[in-house]
Amino acid sequence: MTFEEYKSGRGDIPQTMIAWQVFGAGLERFGRDGKPLQIDTYEVGPDQLLARIDAAGLCFSDIKILNLGGEHPRLYNRDLANDPIVMGHEASITIVKVGENYEGKYSVGDRFCVQADAYYKGVNLAFGYMLPGALEQYTILGPEMLEGDDGCYLLPVKPETGYAETALAEPWACVVCAYRVKPRTSLASGGTVWVIGTPGCEDANYGIGSFEYAYSYPGQVYLTDVPAGLAAQIRDLCAGAGISVKQTSAFDELDPQATFADSGVDDIFVLGNGSAQVVEKAAAALGKKGILNLIAADKLERPVSIDAGRIHYDAHFYQGGPGPDASAGYSFKRGPQLTKGGKTWMVGGAGPMGQMHVQLAIEMNDGPSVIVASDIDGERLGTLPERFGQTADEKGKQLICLNPKELGDEAFDARLKEIAPDGFDDVVVLVPAPFLITQGSQYLAEGGWLNVFAGVARGTMADLDLSDVALRAVRYTGTSGSSIDDLRKTLSMTESGELTPGRSVAAIGGIEAAHEGLDGVKNARFTGKVVIYPQITGLPLTPLEQLADVLPQVAEKLSPQGAWTNEAERALIEHFLD
Fold first, then answer.
1. Helices and strands (DSSP H and E) totals, the chain
2. Are 204 and 253 in contact (CB under 8 A)?
3. Is the backbone peptide bond immediately before 336 cis, with ω within 30 degrees of 0?
4. Alpha carbon distance, N-terminus to C-terminus of the chain
5. Nearest Cα to 466, choosing from 436, 432, 438?
6. Which position among 262, 279, 387, 515 has the lowest Cβ density within 10 Å, counted as fewest Cβ atoms?
């Protein structure tokens, strides 16, 4: 079979295939005795497609499944021992058989990138979680993926797009998403608003543009310790819009989580001189995508302990202003995109995802001019200039790599202040460590954005000087995952040459190498992504720097910097086809 014949998808479909099934928690329950299983290839029903898996990326999210087994929230307590799953949500697929009801809409040879986060009839049935994923040679696709709540969760790719870069569009979309999220510019439509007064608010003449509902109308407003005059204004505005207003008990007597038990609060306003204790207690009541607005003209008495995990996973957002305009926080001079010509600090920038953020910052044409990457792993940190230094020079950007462990605290602090004496426009935290989230926030410039990208668990508290959102216009945000629109954007960037996902590949392997590959992801053995080629058998897990010893004819197709290329991928597949 030639490479072009392989691409066409028109070949014999085997009766059995190799698959890695998950039978419970722990890497030892991934497959049987560290090996995959030989199972029957899926039969195709009239409303289904059979897809060949051409490439699959391994992700730390796969490790979370292995750690939790059926208790993973996306598996809904599934009995994996008797009903195993197939992981793998970063996939490049080719259609090899079409059910009769989809004939004419899909054809053999169609190629797609998979949006894994699929919803069907309101239920999350993600690809590689509840639905069979990419760590097998073939997979079945039914209405859950083809006619989901957001339509079809398959995005077509161009014939010349590589298999690895197609599979890696999914993790890359999470990186791209971090800088595309659009914060709300008004109150949540139909949502809940909670206004809290603290000492000093009785003396301020607040502008309450937020409550004029120019763009959206909340469904309910709660008032706690709000001065009578301001409360009357809010009640009058709400009455005109038919919105209910409730007066709560005094804040000290209030149980916010009981009061807002249903879904939490969408918009919280803390007015007056502020109080760290009030903010902490109020923030715990935020619902998903909730916003806390601190309107204060003076600094809080101490840093505020904030749930950093909920900034990341629940998209909590912290904003504010000095007053008296209580709606000032909804007006943005800039969004979460990295500041053009600015200074960015990637905290933990040498890990697999960190390197992707660094690469994006360097490759984007309208991105920052100075990128600082810090990491305590000197070996991983040293790969950054090797991989991206030349591109940074060509783009006229400065890549600075710092190891705080080697420098020591004082020298590290001095170097950061030397690079950015006025602070960084953007600080992206890529390590799930509360101390680093706190530290990163302390180096923000006025108007700067702190992005909590690392997947810190909900309940992980970080001390942040929330006064900065009111007095220095900084913003605290975070993202988790991506949408199908982010994936579409990432695929477009890839196919236009604006982004080169292949540069993030650190190791490759055939289908049998998935077990070792996941062990490598779990133990942070690689500075980049591991890509499995399920149609290839007999290829052990191979770091790219060792490829010349295993497949010299493939290694010679790597880029001059040793990065994975579509030419190397073709040489790899042709070798195993022969």
1. 20, 26
2. no
3. no
4. 7
5. 438
6. 262
Which residues are registered as beta bridge partners of 103? 106
The two tokens of residue 354 are: 């960190």
CB of 479 closer than 8 Å to CB of 312: yes
For residue 213, how many other CB atoms are within 10 A of its CB? 17
Q: pTM of the predicted model, to two decimals?
A: 0.91
Mean pLDDT in residue range 297-319: 94
Selection from 461, 537, 22, 150 nearest residue 284 by Cα:
461
Q: Is there a contact between 348 and 430 (Cβ–Cβ < 8 Å)?
A: yes
Residues making up the chain, counted from first to last = 578
Distance CA(14)–CA(37), nearest Å, equals 15
Instruction: Please give the pLDDT value at position 1.
Output: 85
Q: Which H, E and C letters describe 62-116, residue by residue?
A: HHHHHHHHHHCCCCCCCCCCCCCECCCCEEEEEEEEECHHHECCECCCCEEEECC
Q: Check if the beta carbon of residue 482 is closer than 8 Å to that of residue 456.
A: no
Cβ atoms within 10 Å, residue 117: 23
Q: Which domains are assigned to the chain?
A: 3-175+485-543 (3.90.180.10), 192-332 (3.40.50.720), 343-448 (3.40.50.720)
pLDDT single digits (tens) 153-209? 999 999 999 999 999 999 999 999 999 988 888 889 899 999 999 988 887 777 665
Kindly report, residue by residue over 508-537, the tens digit of the pLDDT: 999 999 999 999 999 989 989 999 999 999
The closest alpha carbon to 167, from 87, 61, 58, belongs to: 58
Average pLDDT over residues 54-77: 94
Amino acid identity, position 441: S
| Residue of 538, 519, 526 lying closest to 28 (CA atoms) | 519
Residue pair 398/419 in contact (Cβ under 8 Å)? The answer is no
**Closest Cα partner for 452 from 471, 469, 468, 436?**
436
What is residue 215's predicted lDDT score, i.e. its pLDDT?
58
pLDDT for residue 211: 52
Tokens of 558: 């790597």
* Band of pLDDT at residue 325, cut at 50, 70 and 90: confident
d(Cα 61, Cα 59) in Å, to the nearest integer? 5
Alpha-carbon Rg for the chain, nearest whole angstrom, is 26
For residue 572 the two structure tokens come to 């790899």
Geometric angle at alpha carbon 440, from 438 and 443, rounded to 5°: 115
Residue whose C-alpha is closest to residue 133's, from 149, 144, 122, 121 = 144
d(CA 27, CA 67): 8
What are the pLDDT digits (tens) for 432-471? 999 999 999 999 999 999 999 988 888 999 999 999 999 9
Q: How large is the angle between the packed helices 169-177 and 352-363, nearest 10 degrees?
A: 70
From residue 241, alpha-carbon distances to 103, 214, 237 in Å are 52, 11, 7
